[in-house]
Specification:
The structure holds 2 protein chains of 2 kinds. Chain A is α/β, with parallel strands linked by helices. In chain A, about 30% of the residues lie in helices and about 30% in strands. Chain A is globular. Chain A starts with a strand and ends with a helix. The chains are: A alpha/beta, B mainly alpha.
């Protein structure tokens, strides 16, 4: 594919690095230093220029562009650059990162001819929200239109307890993989669970919840009292999503101005507390040690880690950190912190997923991008119905199909029925092969 | 060196080795056709091929991920091995010492064109073709070819290799993938070679001579199949054709590539404009100088003067006559051309025009700064601001060039050669030009040098071809440190 990426910030840089392995990538940014840096490190074509200026695209005129990705810092710039390339180049698809959630609701993106828009803030907030329904889970993902979830749980059993990895599988729940010592692998029947493993299960919500209670005895059973650190746009968005009857939320922010702004947006649903004069006083005063869950939402990972460790220190079991820098992901996991992808991280993964997905196949990355889940949806009236398909021939993959409300292991040739879901879970190394297989079904 | 980097190194070596062995079948094929004793050559090539194929197959599953350091080590190792591989056929078919054979091979691959053969016309034709082929492969860079042909190298790794081997101030790309740019440049290179060979053939050369001279012209090498080089043919048309092709081979190949995409603006760079001006100016004063001091006509002088200036400026090293007999004024003019060199991104060696532009502009900027202490002074080339980083590395390059030339010169002088020979030979080796003056003049050769001298000159040629830093990095203690 010929891909143009507008914006050489963190998201643009990571996308260019990943995509340049297989595709022809051109990166445009007005920051000459950033562009030089990119050009030195990875195999791409680069242009220094303003993405809002049509003249910038002169050097790629006449080329057929398969994908245009706008990931600059500003919504306006992203949208305008999309309009410009639409006018001056032949572009097939356009993916845009947007902050303003208003665009998600309205049909503006469609009007502008934008193929896909990515709302990282909303995605991050939703990830946090989903933890409320599954209090013991480390992460929860809804992979497609059906009700099934992919969750991760931290195993808390005693070392002497002997649990075979697949012994707890049912027709409503299967184990997909394990992250152990920073390394993700597809589980096999012979694997034995060890304490502190992060286990990935895929299944129906009820079964998933039961499994959470079975594996994890430490985390609170339900979350009623939540503390959020940081009242940036992300903190506020998360607070908005978490507001529910019976849930009390305290949003703590050092900057008084930000507090005032948050208070206006969130009104009285959330208690906004200024920590201008130090946190320590607040812990007792506000009873923070009694919280069920603490979320650190700053853009600085180090700060988030420290906040989480502090909260653990004074007795909060469930501590959540927003992860902005992918290099800190493993460290956060190791420290027993629940990790939620931050905006930039989310933008990166979301865009990669959009590139891998189509109307029939959905791709979702999980476990810090080290694993991927593909879903092929059998819509009514598709050719595949009534045909026999063969399972994936390689190893290191879990392929299943969902029929009705049950999950079946896909190991033998299968007669496809309407509304089936064919799914495959694999490590990122196997991604290309599995992707080929599921598209070719 | 851990096991991974050793594997990386061997896999890349095997790929380049395989490419080389494929190209070496060309002279063998020629030997087969014209009935020369190709047996030993074939045996050597088969051995080269099988060793590399074996290595390649053993490491088939190994995924090459080069770090910058590994890339630099690799480039150095490959050039040393190329020198050895290229020298074997010479030893098999002519009576030369190891040092001589290696010198000849290095001179070939670095497109220097200095020869240790006193009589090349008695050599088997396939050996002559082999010599020209080493020029042709080394001119654009065998690694650049490898990067283009084999996409097995990961992107960032191939970038390092490309930069380490190609010449010039900075590396540009025309396509997102370096592989595509590399392949297209080779396409232009092949095309130029074909056109040149066909023209020479039409002008009366034999097909064999035409191909050999085209190889040596486009790569700005300088090996000839005749002892008298171009003087043998004594045909003004051939001289003008070759002058033209030498000059365009001394230009940035990316600019030629752009032309094929319908963009001729590339020729308007300051570097190319100055290069052409320098060529015209030096040719003119050399022909005037010769016309005034001899009975030859102006047209005759112009033909040979422009051929000579093109040959020396682009560091090719052909001779249409013994211009060292034209007097000291002429020699001085030719030495000026020796000092300048071609364009960045071309097959030519030398200091290169762009570096002179940078240095001169920076000196002018310094003068301006002294006169106007409060002024903000910047240096612009082609309307782009020259970064301090580029300025530093340009000065470092020029200093390194001067030091290297000086050291080699002093070595030769200490070995007992006269000053003119020492200086010009040193310039000719480091700049990959070929002929110097006095003992190594255009009508002479390098046969009289001792083995040790040839060794020093071989190293000087490789250092000059890889533009100093790639080789010098290995001598840095920091390079080998883990921390």
């Amino acid at each position: 594919m010929e891909i143009i990426i507008a914006g050489a910030g963190m998201v643009g840089f990571r996308l260019a690095t990943t995509l340049s392995v297989k595709h022809n990538v051109t990166v445009i940014d007005k920051n000459a230093d950033a562009i030089n840096m990119l050009q030195e490190q990875i195999d791409i074509y680069s242009v220094v220029g303003n993405v809002e200026d049509p003249a910038t695209y002169n050097s790629v005129l006449g080329k057929k562009i398969d994908l245009f990705i706008a990931v600059t810092d500003s919504d306006e710039t992203n949208i305008i650059s999309c309009l410009i390339v639409d006018e001056s180049l032949q572009v097939k698809d356009k993916i845009v990162r947007l902050r303003n959630a208003f665009f998600a609701k309205s049909s503006i993106a469609l009007k502008l001819g934008i193929t896909e828009s990515v709302f990282p803030i909303t995605r991050t907030a939703n990830s946090v929200r989903s933890l409320l329904d599954f209090p013991k889970a480390n992460s929860v993902k809804k992979l497609n239109q059906n009700n099934f979830r992919l969750i991760s749980i931290r195993a808390q059993h005693k070392p002497q307890e002997y649990i075979l990895a697949h012994s707890l599988n049912t027709q409503e729940l299967i184990m997909v993989g394990i992250e152990r010592n920073k390394e993700f692998f597809i589980s096999s029947e012979k694997d034995v669970l060890k304490p502190n493993d992060l286990i990935y299960y895929f299944g129906a919500p009820k079964a998933v919840k039961d499994m959470c209670s079975r594996m994890d005895t430490k985390m609170p059973k339900e979350i009623k009292k939540i503390v959020i650190f940081g009242a940036d746009s992300l903190g506020i968005e998360i607070a908005k999503k978490l507001v529910a009857p019976g849930v009390s939320i305290k949003l703590i922010e050092r900057n008084l101005e930000k507090c005032k702004l948050a208070a206006e947006i969130l009104q009285n649903d959330v208690a906004i507390i200024s920590s201008q004069y130090g946190n320590d006083r607040l812990i007792k005063e506000e009873g923070l040690q009694n919280a069920d869950m603490m979320i650190a939402t700053s853009k600085n990972d180090e700060e988030n880690i420290v906040k989480c460790l502090e909260a653990k220190e004074y007795g909060v079991e469930k501590v959540v950190a927003i992860n902005n820098d992918p290099n800190k992901y493993a460290l956060m996991h190791k420290l027993g912190i629940v990790v939620v992808r931050g905006q930039k991280n989310n933008a990166y993964y979301a865009i990669l997923e959009k590139i891998d997905s189509s109307s029939v196949v959905h791709a979702r990355l999980f476990c810090g991008g080290s694993a991927v889940a593909f879903t092929r949806i059998i819509y009514p009236e598709t050719d595949l119905i009534g045909k026999i398909i063969r399972p994936y021939s390689g190893s290191n993959i879990h392929s299943v199909y969902i029929r009705g409300e049950k999950i079946f292991v896909f190991s033998e040739p299968l007669l496809v029925e309407e509304n089936d879901y064919i799914m495959a879970f694999c490590t990122i190394i196997e991604e290309q092969k599995v992707k080929k297989w599921i598209y070719a079904l | 060196m851990d096991i991974r980097s050793v594997k990386n190194l061997f896999k890349l070596l095997s790929v380049i080795g395989l490419s080389l062995s494929v190209f070496l079948t060309i002279p063998i094929f020629l030997g087969l056709m014209i009935g020369e004793a190709y047996g030993k050559f074939l045996l050597f090539d088969a051995l080269l091929f099988s060793i590399n194929l074996f290595l390649y197959l053993v490491l088939l599953q190994h995924k090459v991920e080069l770090s910058i350091k590994q890339g630099i080590v690799f480039v150095n190792v490959i050039w040393i091995l190329l020198a050895f591989a290229g020298s074997v056929p010479l030893m098999l078919y002519s009576d030369v010492t190891l040092a001589q054979a290696i010198f000849e091979s290095v001179s070939g691959f670095t497109t220097t064109g200095a020869t240790i053969y006193t009589d090349v016309e008695v050599l088997p034709k396939m050996i002559l073709l082999h010599r020209s082929l080493t020029h042709w492969l080394g001119g654009m860079g065998i690694i650049v070819l490898g990067v283009g042909l084999f996409s097995l190298i990961n992107p960032s790794g191939s970038l390092t290799l490309f930069k380490a081997e190609s010449t010039g101030v900075k590396m540009e790309k025309l396509t997102p993938k370096i592989k595509d740019t590399a392949l297209r440049i080779w396409g232009v290179y092949v095309l130029f070679t074909l056109v040149d060979a066909i023209l020479l053939k039409l002008e009366g050369m034999s097909a064999f001579d035409a191909i050999n001279h085209a190889f040596a012209t486009i790569s700005t090498g300088g090996f000839s199949t005749k002892n008298a080089s171009f003087g043998y043919f004594d045909n003004p048309l051939m001289l003008w054709t070759t002058t033209f092709f030498m000059i365009i081979s001394g230009m940035n190949f990316l600019v030629h590539l752009r032309l094929f995409f319908g963009d001729a603006k590339g020729y308007k760079t300051e570097e190319i404009q100055w290069y052409v001006v320098i060529f015209l100016f030096l040719s003119l004063i050399l022909s005037l100088e010769h016309t005034f001091h001899s009975t030859d006509s102006f047209m005759y002088s112009l033909t040979h003067a422009s051929f000579t200036i093109a040959s020396v400026l682009t560091t090719t090293g052909f001779a249409s006559l013994d211009y060292s007999l034209w007097g000291q004024g002429a020699i001085a003019i030719v030495i000026v051309a020796m000092l300048i060199g071609g364009n960045a991104g071309s097959t030519a060696g030398g200091v290169k025009v762009i570096r002179y532009i940078v240095v001169i502009k920076s000196i002018m900027a310094d003068i301006k700064q002294i006169i106007h202490p409060n002024a903000i002074v910047n240096i612009f080339i082609d309307r782009n601001k020259v970064q301090n980083k580029v300025l530093h590395s340009t000065y470092a390059f020029v200093m390194l060039y001067a030091f290297t030339v000086l050291l080699v010169m002093l070595y030769l002088f200490a070995s007992g050669y006269d000053m003119t020979t020492s200086l010009t030979t040193s310039l000719a080796a480091v700049g990959n030009i070929g002929p110097g003056f006095s003992l190594t003049g255009p009508a002479q050769n390098y046969a009289f040098f001792k083995s040790a001298d040839l060794g020093v000159l071989s190293v000087a040629m490789i250092i000059g071809r890889l533009e100093f830093f790639t080789v010098l990095l290995l001598l840095s203690r920091n390079f080998w440190r883990q921390f």
